[in-house]
Structure formats: C-alpha cells, structure tokens
Amino acid sequence: MLVYLNMCGFMFFSGLIVFASKRKHLLLMLLSLEFVVLALYMNLSISLEHGDSEVFFLMIYLTMSVCEGALGLGVLVSMIRACGNDHVLSFSSLW
C-alpha cells in the first residue's frame, strides 16, 4: 500500500510542477490540473478502502471533478472563440 501512496504523491507533485511551470497553452494547464485531480482521487480511494470507511465520498469527489473539468473546457472554448487561440498570455483578463 505504501508503494501506491508514494506513486500518488509523485503523480500529484509532478502535476503541480507542470502547472506551476507556466505553460503558454491553457489546454496544457487544464490537463495538468486534471492529472492532479486523478492523483488525489487515487489517494482517496486507497485511503478509504484501506480504512474500511464510507466510499460514497468518492462519488461526490468525482462529481465535483467532472464539473471542474467541464467548466475548464467551457473557458477554453470561449477563449478560443474570443481570441482565436489558447495562448494564456494573449487573454488579458487572466493576468
């Protein structure tokens, strides 16, 4: 179990490093955020299954992460329609 938790921690921090490296495309930033969400989901599922806790919380977490992904894609589509590309620095209201 410790190997899986270490793998989840590595996934989490690698996703944060990619996000913090200020990529120029919004799609890459959204993908790194989804990678962080996936790592947190794996960590939660391993922890809740090991502790014999209620796993209904995982369904709530998945629902919130799907809503976050849909919201990010909506922002991406509106940005591409307004600016013509998904470069983060060309969209003045983000910075």
Strand residues, percent: under 5%
Number of helices: 3
Shape: elongated
Question: Into how many domains do the coordinates divide?
Answer: 1
Q: Which value, in Å, is the CA radius of gyration?
A: 16 Å
Low-confidence stretches: none
- H and E order: HHH
CATH architecture: Orthogonal Bundle
Could you name the CATH class? Mainly Alpha
Named CATH topology: Helix Hairpins
Mean pLDDT: 84
Keywords: Electron transport, Membrane, Mitochondrion, Mitochondrion inner membrane, NAD, Respiratory chain, Translocase, Transmembrane, Transmembrane helix, Transport, Ubiquinone
EC number: 7.1.1.2
Main location: mitochondrion
GO molecular function: NADH dehydrogenase (ubiquinone) activity; oxidoreductase activity, acting on NAD(P)H
Molecular structure report:
The protein has 95 residues and is mainly α. The protein has one domain (2-90): Helix Hairpins (Orthogonal Bundle), CATH 1.10.287. The protein has helices spanning 2-20, 26-50, 56-83. Helix 1 runs antiparallel to helix 2 (26-50) and helix 2 (26-50) runs antiparallel to helix 3 (56-83). It is elongated, with a radius of gyration of 16 Å. It starts with a helix and ends in a 12-residue tail after the last helix. The mean pLDDT is 84. Its main location: mitochondrion. Its EC number is 7.1.1.2.
